[in-house]
Amino acid sequence: MSGNTFGKLFSVTTFGESHGPAIGCVIDGCPPGLPLSEADIQPELDRRKPGTSRHVTQRKEPDTVEILSGVYQGVTTGTPIALLIRNEDQRSKDYGNITESFRPGHADYTYWHKYGVRDPRGGGRSSARLTAPVVGAAAIAKKWLNQQYGTVFKGCMSQLGDIVVPFQDWSHVHDNPFFAASGDAALIARMEDAMDELRKAGDSIGARIDVIAQNIPVGLGQPIYDKLDADIAYAMMGINAVKGVEIGAGFKSVEQKGSVHGDSLTPTGFIGNNAGGVLGGISTGQDITVSIAIKPTSSIRTPRQSIDKDGNPVMVETFGRHDPCVGIRATPIAEAMLALVLIDHALMHRAQCGDVRVATPNIAPAMPPAAR
Amino acid sequence: MSGNTFGKLFSVTTFGESHGPAIGCVIDGCPPGLPLSEADIQPELDRRKPGTSRHVTQRKEPDTVEILSGVYQGVTTGTPIALLIRNEDQRSKDYGNITESFRPGHADYTYWHKYGVRDPRGGGRSSARLTAPVVGAAAIAKKWLNQQYGTVFKGCMSQLGDIVVPFQDWSHVHDNPFFAASGDAALIARMEDAMDELRKAGDSIGARIDVIAQNIPVGLGQPIYDKLDADIAYAMMGINAVKGVEIGAGFKSVEQKGSVHGDSLTPTGFIGNNAGGVLGGISTGQDITVSIAIKPTSSIRTPRQSIDKDGNPVMVETFGRHDPCVGIRATPIAEAMLALVLIDHALMHRAQCGDVRVATPNIAPAMPPAAR
Amino acid sequence: MSGNTFGKLFSVTTFGESHGPAIGCVIDGCPPGLPLSEADIQPELDRRKPGTSRHVTQRKEPDTVEILSGVYQGVTTGTPIALLIRNEDQRSKDYGNITESFRPGHADYTYWHKYGVRDPRGGGRSSARLTAPVVGAAAIAKKWLNQQYGTVFKGCMSQLGDIVVPFQDWSHVHDNPFFAASGDAALIARMEDAMDELRKAGDSIGARIDVIAQNIPVGLGQPIYDKLDADIAYAMMGINAVKGVEIGAGFKSVEQKGSVHGDSLTPTGFIGNNAGGVLGGISTGQDITVSIAIKPTSSIRTPRQSIDKDGNPVMVETFGRHDPCVGIRATPIAEAMLALVLIDHALMHRAQCGDVRVATPNIAPAMPPAAR
Amino acid sequence: MSGNTFGKLFSVTTFGESHGPAIGCVIDGCPPGLPLSEADIQPELDRRKPGTSRHVTQRKEPDTVEILSGVYQGVTTGTPIALLIRNEDQRSKDYGNITESFRPGHADYTYWHKYGVRDPRGGGRSSARLTAPVVGAAAIAKKWLNQQYGTVFKGCMSQLGDIVVPFQDWSHVHDNPFFAASGDAALIARMEDAMDELRKAGDSIGARIDVIAQNIPVGLGQPIYDKLDADIAYAMMGINAVKGVEIGAGFKSVEQKGSVHGDSLTPTGFIGNNAGGVLGGISTGQDITVSIAIKPTSSIRTPRQSIDKDGNPVMVETFGRHDPCVGIRATPIAEAMLALVLIDHALMHRAQCGDVRVATPNIAPAMPPAAR
């Protein structure tokens, strides 16, 4: 209720501040009988952790996860699974005057006015570091969904500032530091140059991230409010720095005619996927396709006009180690949020309609990713 | 939990199908002591009702609302307020073969596979008609927010298919059938022509809608998941036919640098509103600004390729009366959803932080609407 | 969240005041495919309605239920089911000075101080009349549980004031106006005399009600907070006038030794049912057995010392038509609440563990009722 | 939703198993600005911890609590507060054949059938050890309630098996190992003898616990389902081993007449407190009074008839260290649950009605405790 729990049936309650003793989460509702150990979770954490290239924050956080409960003899028991990640690299001295003044574009101002108190160390609770426990929880969700339905998640950066990255193949995503689904070396070099320039200038840039889920049963989602796409929008807009969310054709559908937008059905499946895998709030069995806009990092070295707590004008400069593009590490996070939405709806569907209906032969096979 | 309730503290549970006996909702959590009668609600319903121009469905629904509970001697009592709207114009005969086959782009397919049964009359539960009770509930929310904080809501259509409508002034919104904030007669004529042509062609088109809320206290929203913008995205994506949501600069922020995107603060307020009134998930006190993409109506007269319940290929034609652009009537609905999100967060903030903090002098006055 | 919704997966949101235009509820989460019409619901409403004997209020309410949504061609569709009951016999003139003063033992005082406004007509929202929609909703729950598991519900009055009613057989429950499971004509006569005397004296009396559910699958309930017995206690204590709840051996377990209390297991089932069908918060497959204490009606003709809204001393006399023992009509209500708890847990169990586990061969057959 | 979170606005999500690496909880919704450190929490944990007298389990658990988040510079920030307690004394070898068979009266049987897997070490999740994090969370709730309203909590054991403990004075509660509110040395000696005898016999016994809350504002609680007393019943019945709950006069109200039960009002307060401080589900401002029945410990040394996982008959003996009366340590736990219910309702009331109404002059001062 106070906004730190995600999901209703597979609920993830997170805690922690960027520079406090620890961060973590409690996962309530994981079905029993799933084989699970830290080895299932750590690789997903490693995908999002800082310090993996020169284009992301150089803060060193091993982000080693410990399972505190809910697993017995390597199998989930149906009781809450607590994940704990101790904070290690807590250099707080770098934050300059930001404890007394507000960074433009940052949560400093709103936390202060909401609570009357805030933890300024590393952004406190508003730090993107708090996505780590979620990625950990989603690793469990992904494993379960994969076992049940063969579901897989894929994601890539499709735009970095004004550099558009045409989709080539998912296999490229891990060959470059940007999660770009492209094998175009010149394009990757352009991206690296753009990042180097920004870093020197003490500035930052936005990005667009695409994620998809494949092999989803038909029927997930609720008819009016807890629509599958509504919950996806909620999940994505809740990621730090996200300012826009699209499902399927997204904003392109504004200019489409109905005769073009509506994906025709054939006995062997849908033709096209403007729907993004959701019709009337319920999954069609096609790929779920989502695209998000990530704003530029608000903590930059460039001095900017602001005010302090007493309302006096000040210039704010942020020191410390920040990602010049928070979008770079956002791909695994967006995948994670999508996985959390889907497992919640899968469990809800099971409550409402039982196991059987999920097994309905899917006459709507997933579209090839390139068809987006 | 089963997706028919919106909001946690000001909860709206809706019921009804397009062509069943009645539609309505139960509002739980309206604060006591608010003067209220049907006269506060009916005008909002009239703004969204069908049959007001030739560009929307000619279905005639008076949509007369009755308050069944929660009000005594003209004042809310703190107990649930039930709103009832009887369905009157239930011509079901026009629906042709759609009871046995699935319209492309429509919820027919997913409802059938989820539930194994569906009410095909007028789209059943998936009909946009179900936004009527929500608009009714939001009329109450708007009144309360206005009394408490002076909050006002404004909305307009900013794009119809490929016709962009440059913002001129809110005063124009009610002078044309499109909710366009423009006094440009030639532009309005172009829109009318485009709609007439579509109607003749038996096709439909998408639209973009902008809504804002002004005079919002600083501090509404939760830090991690129930962020104000996440809940807005959830609310907007849940509206029938919405495929994309933006807050503030939205997808434009992908190409922005941090030094440009971050709204600077001065002792008299923010400069710019790329944030759309939300930082770190919490309201800044600026205008909340939201933009949504609405797909073209999926029920069109043009015959399309589809399948029937048994998976056999069929051609589907939809008869009956449909909006060729569901976006035309979407403006009051989007305003309504925004109002429901805001009252919920206002009550939650009061729970967490008490009355006092809401009264914090707002050093961040709302930006003029034109500054979007 | 504001306390007018019962249940999480089979959610019942009620509305209405005793003497307002209507009462009713919206049921969200009823599984699709259940055959349903008003004829399934009305008989349960008739069991609790007033005016059926001289021992209950003579208020005449036909309590005719109308299904407004969620059913198509005689089958539930998975969408919300709204039930509407119009109020008809609204004689408000009988309530004397109670609009300005507070009846001892009644909600008048607390509603006034909580909300600053209250609907005094017939007790407004605090009237036991508001149990009618719940009984209606529970009729649907009972039907589903019976189809799935063969579950049946039984209830009886086991004590009226100081008259204890020894259990003989469930078949007697409908042969007397008290829901007594006894064929002892002399005992029934004693109860009738006691009630006549009370009515003449303008006073009221308490009662004890027992309810059981038979044929419940093993495994329903959550380990820590949403224990099956905790949710039953919540449901029962929420019934108007209830002051105590017991599961299984209840308060008798205070004096029991562990070697006596713990029900032994054998290959063919449990020996004894001190547990009341719940161990560690989870159903054992035995009968669920519950007992509740109902306080005497607070609206009595006997004048009593009280205060008015301004804090001045007054004498309060209640006129109008009241049950001298609200416990008499409480049996179907207690059964209804038990049914609502069980369907919610049945759906939750299905979400968590799937259909299969519910089918686990139950080596713990229900105990015969007499074994309580 | 999956039953490991208590409370809606002050939500406590617990995790952990008796003999796993750690237990703990995440508290979401604690208002900001409350001074807080481990020193506020540890004393409450110490009141319930094992090993404090020979009458409770000799298991040694220091139960040292660590705050992981939500506190900055000694003050709560409004973000989640995570409490961690490492398990230290994990002697698992003592449990004999209970990993393969089911103890009568214990959750072994139901966990196994629900989940298909269970952690048998020390009772796993069903251990009373899991009340420790709740007591820790409640220490925070108590502190906040005390600061806001001067609320205080008191509790005592009023019956041990068949030994009734007449209430003398709260000051005695900490002078004996039973939380008895009695200075009668002979009575205490009788209780000690009874416990020694039980321990020797390898058996266990039940108990009755009373708890009260004083200085509660009028107006807390919801009208229909989330009644204050319903939520208290839920909280209390959820404590391990509780089989019955009473509010105010409880089961005694069955035999009371309305003219006796209803507490009269005078300009200076209520006369009597049969209501237990709740009318119509809403607090009156009087003391909240609650009484609970605790069954005898189910883990006893006496051999008992049972079955193993395969349904074969076995004799079960429990070794290891168990409380012969779990009721002895239940008093601080019952206080804790009451505190958690009250803070949740206090915050909810603030959401609904704002700060002001809580300050309504309370014309209903709390009754002296002895008046129960």
TrEMBL record, chains A, B, C, D:
UniProt-annotated binding residues for FMN? R125, S126, S127, N240, A241, G280, K295, P296, T297, S298, S299, R321
**Binding note for cofactor:** Reduced FMN (FMNH(2)).
The protein's annotated catalytic reaction(s) are: 5-O-(1-carboxyvinyl)-3-phosphoshikimate = chorismate + phosphate
Supply the InterPro entries for this chain: Chorismate_synth, Chorismate_synth_AroC_sf, Chorismate_synthase_CS
* Pathway assigned in UniProt: Metabolic intermediate biosynthesis; chorismate biosynthesis; chorismate from D-erythrose 4-phosphate and phosphoenolpyruvate: step 7/7
Q: State the needed cofactors, names only.
A: FMNH2
- Please state the Enzyme Commission number of this protein: 4.2.3.5
**What keywords is this UniProt entry annotated with?**
Amino-acid biosynthesis, Aromatic amino acid biosynthesis, FAD, Flavoprotein, FMN, Lyase, NADP
Q: Which SUPFAM superfamilies match?
A: Chorismate synthase, AroC
UniProt-listed Pfam families: Chorismate_synt (PF01264)
Please tell me where NADP(+) binds in this chain: R48, R54
Which GO MF terms does the UniProt record name? chorismate synthase activity; FMN binding
Q: Which HAMAP family match?
A: Chorismate_synth
Role noted for this protein:
This reaction introduces a second double bond into the aromatic ring system.
Family statement drawn from the similarity comment of this UniProt entry: Belongs to the chorismate synthase family.
Task: Tell me the protein's name.
Answer: Chorismate synthase
- Can you name the source organism? Rugamonas rivuli
Gene responsible for this protein? aroC
